[in-house]
Design a protein that fits this description.
heterodimer, A: 359 residues, mainly alpha, two-stranded antiparallel ribbon, globular, B: 442 residues, 3-stranded antiparallel β-sheet, 20 helices
């Protein structure tokens, strides 16, 4: 019984974390773009005149979307049209269940893993759920019965499916290095040290894999420079016919994808919750010193490290979004199939050769 | 009624209507596309959504009244339109413009050209997805418009260039404002070069897309940066120098391939040349004929009028520089041709001859009455040769006026350029042409 309660608490905590951070990513996006573009950014939303640099803006946006008219065009396929945003939303939101936020927390003789479910193939699960999100786009594009959205849906389907290949292949090398499909196990492996002082993070063992994964993941988020399904100046986007909260769900899904990609980058390539030289009992520095810490502080350090890394990658993605122009449809396909997929195959072969040579 | 594209549609293709309300069509054009997947098989362009009958209106307006209509042609660089129209009239009337106002015209013209190019490229980059570049360029334009606002009193509808010169002189601190505008624009251009010019994504999207050969460009009647991007060296400022362009040292940037990227790059380099010209003009401009008033403050128009009414004998009156035709003392420096300029207000309000002059200027059938004949005069506008063709029958209204709008000829080639390319290529192609609705549809 108490196991169930613990799982329920974990689900609530993880979801709240996920949704709140994704909500505030909209604020980060607005403010960061404002800083890049010499603007001030959204700062008018207030509660009793307290503005706090626009921190209430996401809530104002959410309220606005809730109360906007939810318009379904007469010529659309109603059921599928309504289903699409939820499909998009659901499959991204569910991926958070496999992300490890920290190691084990020991309270009152219990060992609680800071992860909702820690199953064998969590990496495959995450990839599968991310690719299922495509259905939301295809459904939205097709069921709106509008030629622009159809083009957007087609672009989205083609782009996401081809980048799914590169995304999957780029991780094969990683799986060879850390022989597991379990995200928690991968993070544990990254806690070891290379030559006694470099942490065994994916970024040091799989640099090429990281690059390919990062590019493919950027394409997965459907934002500039890969925002072809949306392409607001060309085809207006696959969600042209959506309004109100359903449109908001699509936008929100994008931000959740940014967050999930940041989580995955952290977990797979940057040691997840690992802090360099921090072990279960405290820091053991390679130059011999040590700093012992109580268990609670160690766990706090881990969770904090995970969060900071995730925020960094969110920031990086927003920076990229506001710096680059958009690709063209055929060039995105070229980049995916002619560059990223061959590179990831080379990465796999190179990793295999190196591993067999090193024994 | 079926459109040509509907009649010619092939089996298995999709017809797509782009515009007139589409983010990339700037609100006033419509492109009908026949698509095979994302490839444009056929397309048909429809323009005229902003047609306001400019040429017809001109036939019922006096020459002086028409000036304000020219503001609304290319609304991004109204000063160039003013100049073109006014210089056509001056050619007809045979007026020699004072040197200082020639320099003022050149400075404002070149700044307008920078504004025009900035706007065109900003829109083009934004439509390629680079929103940051868009806002950077808009920022640079603000600094330039500071000077425009201080000088002309308006941001868009300036009506500043007048027959015989310019309406008023620069404000007292114009050199500082101009220097700030130049410096800030240079900074922005450097940033934009860094963000776009060497950007692989942008290069991929624009290089070798919508290539125009010099022959094709000439056949379509292209002029301006778009023509020069194909390598043809034709610039009205060099070919038929007007104002003081023959005394300035500037280069004409040329492209090589005539693709979208060349059109972008030629504009970027032309802005640098324009800034150089402004700097030269700042150094060369002759001193004003009368010193600026020391208190540096004019009166409000209403205040000025009441002040002039209650004038006591022997007491000088002071009028606001905002008021048309004020401050007689400055006239020799910036306005010439006594018959064709608005009579000074201080005369109008104080003596009977001035009042009569005023009526003679503004009354129907009087005012500016060029001799019988026809004239064509062209200036180098933001997007090409901006020509005014006026037929006069000796009255105060033109018999016929034709505007040679540069982007009309350029946009006409769009159909041919985008055929065989992708839907996404239409956007930078259209953006690089610098379509301005007011000028295109007139």
């Amino acid at each position: 019984m108490s196991d169930w309660i613990i799982i329920l608490i974990k689900i609530i905590c993880a979801l709240v974390w996920f949704l709140v951070i994704a909500l505030y990513l909209t604020w980060v996006e607005r403010k960061e773009s404002a800083v890049i573009q010499d603007r001030i950014g959204a700062n008018r939303a207030n509660i009793w005149k307290f503005r706090v640099i626009g921190l209430f803006q996401p809530f104002a946006d959410a309220i606005k979307m809730l109360f906007k008219e939810d318009f379904t065009p007469r010529f659309s396929r109603k059921f599928l049209h309504n289903l699409a945003p939820f499909v998009s939303f659901f499959f991204v939101a569910i991926t958070v269940s496999a992300i490890p936020f920290g190691d084990v927390l020991r309270i009152g003789g219990r060992e609680i893993k800071l992860q909702i479910v820690d199953f064998n193939v969590s990496l495959l699960f995450v990839m599968a759920m991310l690719s299922l999100g495509i259905y939301g786009i295809i459904l939205a594009g097709w069921s709106s019965n509008n030629r622009y959205t159809l083009l957007g849906g087609m672009r989205g389907a083609a782009q996401l499916i081809s980048y799914e290949v590169a995304l999957g292949l780029s991780l094969i090398g990683l799986i060879m290095v850390y022989p597991s499909l379990k995200l928690s196990a991968i993070v544990h492996y990254q806690g070891e040290l290379l030559w006694g002082w470099i942490p065994k993070w994916g970024v040091f063992l799989q640099p090429l894999g990281l690059l390919i994964f990062f590019f493919a993941a950027l394409a997965e988020t459907k934002r500039v420079p890969f925002d072809l399904p949306e392409g607001e100046n060309e085809i207006v986007g696959f969600f042209t016919e959506y309004s109100g909260l359903k449109w908001g769900l699509f936008m929100f899904t994008d931000f959740m994808e940014v967050l999930i990609i940041a989580c995955l980058l952290t977990t797979l390539f940057f040691g997840g919750w690992q802090v360099p030289w921090l072990y279960a009992d405290g820091f053991h520095f390679p130059w011999g010193g040590q700093w012992l810490l109580p268990h609670g502080i160690v766990v706090a350090f881990q969770v904090l490290a995970f969060n900071l890394k995730v925020f960094f990658f969110c920031w990086l993605q927003v920076l990229i979004r506001w710096t680059y122009p958009r690709f063209r449809y055929d060039q995105v396909m070229d980049l995916g199939w002619k560059l990223l997929v061959p590179l990831s195959l080379i990465n796999i072969a190179g990793t295999a050769i190196l591993l067999s040579l090193l024994g | 009624m079926k459109y040509r594209i509907q009649q010619e549609a092939r089996e298995g293709t999709m017809l797509l209507n782009m515009g007139p309300s589409h983010p990339a069509m700037h609100g006033t054009t419509r492109i009908m596309l026949e698509l095979d997947g994302e490839k444009v098989v056929n397309c048909e362009l429809e323009m005229g959504y902003l047609h306001r009958g400019f040429e017809k209106i001109c036939e019922s307006k006096t020459y002086f009244n028409m000036l304000i209509y020219t503001d609304r042609m290319n609304y991004v660089s109204p000063l160039i339109n003013n100049t073109g129209y006014v210089m056509a009239l001056e050619k007809m009337l045979g007026i020699e413009v004072p040197e200082r106002s020639q320099y003022i015209r050149v400075i404002l013209n070149e700044f307008s050209r920078v504004c025009d190019h900035l706007t065109a490229l900003a829109a083009m980059c934004m439509e390629c997805g680079a929103f940051t570049v868009f806002l950077y360029m808009m920022k640079a334009r603000e600094y330039i418009w500071d000077l425009m606002e201080q000088t002309t009193g308006a941001r868009m509808t300036t009506s500043f260039i007048r027959v015989g010169g310019v309406r008023s002189d620069f404000p007292a601190d114009w050199k500082e404002t101009t220097q700030i505008a130049i410096d800030e624009t240079r900074k922005v251009l450097k940033d934009c070069h860094g963000l776009m010019s060497k950007n692989k994504i942008f290069l991929n999207r624009t290089r070798d897309v919508a290539v125009v050969t010099p022959e094709l460009a000439i056949n379509y009647g292209w002029t301006g940066p778009c023509l020069r991007s194909t390598g043809v060296n034709y610039d009205v400022r060099k070919a038929f120098p007007y104002l003081v362009y023959d005394q300035l040292d500037f280069e004409i940037p040329l492209g090589e391939r005539g693709d979208n990227f060349d059109r972008y790059m030629v504009r970027m380099q032309e802005m640098e040349q324009s800034l150089r010209m402004v700097e030269q003009c700042m150094a060369k401009i002759p001193k004003p004929s009368s010193p600026y008033s020391s208190d540096g403050r004019g009166l409000d128009p209403a205040e000025a009028i009441s002040a002039s009414r209650t004038k006591k004998p022997g007491q000088g009156i002071r009028l606001s520089p905002n008021l048309e035709g004020t401050e007689k003392g400055k006239y020799p420096g910036i306005l010439a041709g006594k018959k064709y300029i608005v009579p000074p207000k201080e005369d109008t309000y104080t003596n009977i001859e001035g009042l009569i002059n005023h009526f003679k200027f503004f009354m129907r059938g009087h005012g500016i009455r060029p001799p019988k004949g026809e004239v064509y005069f062209s200036v180098e506008g933001g997007s090409g040769e901006l020509g005014f063709y006026i037929i006069s029958n000796g009255t105060d209204k033109p018999y016929r006026l034709h505007l040679r709008a540069p982007c009309f000829h350029i946009v006409a080639a769009l159909e041919e350029l985008v055929r065989g390319h992708f839907v996404a290529d239409i956007i930078p192609t259209f953006g690089s042409m610098n379509m301005i609705g007011g000028e295109l549809d007139r």
